[in-house]
Amino acid sequence: MTQSLTLRRPDDWHLHLRDGAMLKGVLPETARHFARALIMPNLVPPVVTGAQAQAYRARIMAALPTGSQFRPLMTLYLTESTDPADVAAAAASGLVKAVKLYPAGATTNSHSGVADFSKVQAVLEKMAEIGLPLCLHGEVTDPSVDIFDREAVFIDTILDPLRRRIPGLRVVMEHITTEEGVAYARSGGEDLAATITTHHLIINRNHILAGGIKPHYYCLPVAKREKHRLALRAAATSGEARFLLGTDSAPHVDALKEHACGCAGCFTATNTMPLLAHVFEEESALHHLESFASLNGPAFYHLPVNETKLTLVKHEQPQSFPEKILTEAGPVTVFNPGFPVHWHVEA
Fold first, then answer.
1. Distances (CA, A) of 339 to 67, 75, 92, 203, 228
2. Is 248 tagged catalytic?
3. CA–CA distance, 171 with 194 (Å, rounded to integer)
4. DSSP label at residue 36
5. What are phi and psi of 8, to 5 degrees?
6. CA separation (Å) from 86 to 83, 91, 95, 304, 306?
7. % helix / strand / coil in the chain, to the nearest 5?
8. What's the mean per-residue pLDDT of the chain?
9. Integer Cα distance of 210 and 242 in angstroms
10. What is the SS3 assignment for 136?
11. Which of 45-59, 94-108, 166-180, 304-318 has the lowest mean pLDDT?
């Protein structure tokens, strides 16, 4: 018997679109199913000022397919020289919805990020004053800390002290990957939320390493042990308002993913919604999918929910996803979950 699920059109609260040819090639994959997305600012050079965010938004809008109603929500890249007044002006204009903090060297194009947190105190205090969310890539970069422990150490040594130092600062823990991340998110009040990616609900570290290295499963933060994946699934499917969908869909051309020093990122924009329906059904939680994908994010970001709808239908015949998206920058491999997916987006 055919199953169907209709929900408000979802938003993606953590998306990489890149720029130029790559932007033009991958933007339609998100615009097809999502109404809005929070766009990450880690371009080269990064999107640091309000003027740069405005220019980037214009390039995104110009690249949209004809007739698309998708709208990008812009962020600024926090540096140690970011001007608090510029951040406040960009937020007041309605252009910028959050500021992204990358610890210097933590992930792709993060070299302009923060090494000395005392140098961004004034910006963070201004953000707390005006209610502008801080999106945190929550990993330490100390080489003495094991890569699988960097999120937990970040929570203890940086995030918790930061939130105690600046009460009222609204924080989003981006792409949490651990039991510790789930527990800390649950310990906070209304000023703390956490995004969870599609791929971290599906893969653990064995998928990357067992039977040979699988570069298209390599991401940062790296996937962890199975117990952590199960904790993420329980959180995402719980219906709790603090957990938001943020795919962290991150396109890289195959030549760079399959390189001797391959880039981090999974590209899930194409198939996120069918994959989420599969996961939520496995957890007997389809009734919570709308909260995770469509309601919790707007509530935290103080935005209206989308009025348009999206319908998912489960068929006997499994879904057939494209293996690659062909862009003028080069081919981008679509995330392969490794199992048949019977949910289809039909409207």
1. 34, 35, 45, 11, 20
2. yes
3. 8
4. E
5. -60, 145
6. 5, 9, 12, 25, 29
7. 35, 20, 45
8. 96
9. 33
10. strand
11. 94-108
Angle at the Cα of 42 from the Cα atoms of 12 and 143, rounded to 5 degrees: 110
pLDDT at residue 347, rounded to an integer: 73
Cross-strand partners of 11: 36
Q: Mean per-residue pLDDT for 279-298?
A: 98
Phi, psi (deg, nearest 5) at residue 175: 35, 60
Q: What is the pLDDT of residues 229-270, one digit of tens each?
A: 999 999 999 999 999 999 999 999 999 999 999 999 999 999
Give residue 247's region: left, alpha or beta (phi > 0; psi -120 to 50): alpha
Mean pLDDT value across residues 276-296: 98
**Closest residue by Cα to residue 275 from 231, 324, 233, 223:** 233
Total residue count of the chain as it appears in this document: 347
Q: Minimal CA–CA distance to 243: which of 231, 235, 251? A: 235
Q: Which of 11, 12, 86, 248 is catalytic?
A: 248
Beta strands in the chain (DSSP E): 3-8, 11-15, 36-39, 71-77, 96-101, 134-136, 171-173, 192-196, 243-245, 309-314, 324-327, 330-333, 343-345
Q: Hey, how many other C-beta atoms are within 10 angstroms of the C-beta on 126?
A: 18
Q: Locate tokens 């969310």: which residue? A: 133
Predicted confidence at residue 95, as pLDDT, reads 98
pLDDT digits (tens, 9 = 90+) for 317-347: 999 999 999 999 999 999 999 999 999 999 7
Q: From residue 195, how far is each of 145, 182, 316 by CA, in Å?
A: 23, 10, 31
R_g (Cα) of the chain, nearest Å: 19
- Residues facing 249 on adjacent strands: 15
Q: Dihedrals φ, ψ of 327, to 5°? A: -115, 165
Angle CA(139)–CA(143)–CA(144) in degrees, nearest 5? Answer: 105
DSSP letters, 68-122, are ---EEEEEEE--TT--HHHHHHHHHTTSEEEEEE-BTTSSTT-TTSBS-GGGGHH
| Euclidean distance between CA atoms 205 and 74, whole angstroms | 32
pLDDT of residue 108: 65
